[in-house]
Amino acid sequence: MTPTSSYTSSGTGRRSQEFTPASALRGFLEHSGRRAAELSPGYEHVWECVARVTGPGDGLQQGLVMAAAESYPARPTRPVLNAVAAAFELLRASLELRDGVQTTPGGATPSDLSPNSATMARSAHTDAAGEADDALASDLALSGAYRMIATSHAPESRLLKLLDILDHAAFHAAAGDRMAAEHARRAGAVSRQEVLDALRIGSAVPCFEAPLRAGAVLGGAPTAQVTALAQAGRALGVAHALAGELSACTGSEDDDAPARFLTSGRRTVLGCLVESGPHGPAWRALRERCAQRTASPDDVAQARDLLSRSGADAAVARMVEIAVERARDAMTAGDLPASLTERLTGWAERELIR
Length: 354
Description:
- It comes from Kocuria marina subsp. indica.
- About 70% of the residues lie in helices and about 0% in strands.
- The chain is an all-alpha fold.
- The protein has a single domain (about 15-350), classed as Farnesyl Diphosphate Synthase (Orthogonal Bundle).
- The longest helix is centred in the middle third of the chain and has 30 residues, at about 155-185.
């Protein structure tokens, strides 16, 4: 197995240890951009869309891969880890480009597992061409994720498992996206459990379970621990998504988030809780009004009032705490390395519980 990867240190004359998942991803995108430019300026623009959404490339997903892998002594060389971690950043970018999931509360990336902040980089499109570019960029990002793993030089026995994990993640992401779209089109009520199922399948599995499983497999973790980490990842992913709803509706990390929250058309657990109670008619009227135009400051204020009066915000905050507790219990029961358990639970308690 060579100590370098095509997108980490090959041809630079520098030690592979100097490279990170971010540099691996940057190398892949620069290489792809140059190839695209030789074919068409428009095609180069599509790759620029991918690069814009991946941001600095040191987001939460690569942090999860690295946190899990570095907790086990049988992990492969650094370039292999870099390539696999970069693959899950590309998977996350693919989901954002097709507007499938919000992967960070309010757009902020937790500082413990990834050092820099990254925000949703999709721009609003007013024409079909822009939407088509995003759809194509999403497909290319997913294809790139497979390529990063396939060319990572991971040991063959682990490579097949990694590709299976990525396939499992992409399969669930598509299912969750389809469920969310169905919920958005439905004229009638959508239950809280239906929305939670879509979040778990479409967000928690690809963005939390999958990178944690991949890192554990790379590190040579026992099968029982990989399974326990997958369970914990699903719980953390649900907590992360719910915390994202709370952050979006309050605008605590992004002043524009409440307006996007109301006009997105996506069903939320917060909204389902309000709709199921006495404030349901007022919430439905507000949602229908915001679906026709940009939410005004008065709309945002009314939404916050309804969420508070209905108790939906407090209920979701408690659901976040319960999900974090379930993740902690899964890690404890699975006898995971103490350092990994402490790192993940510390991050969750600090970043998700309000």
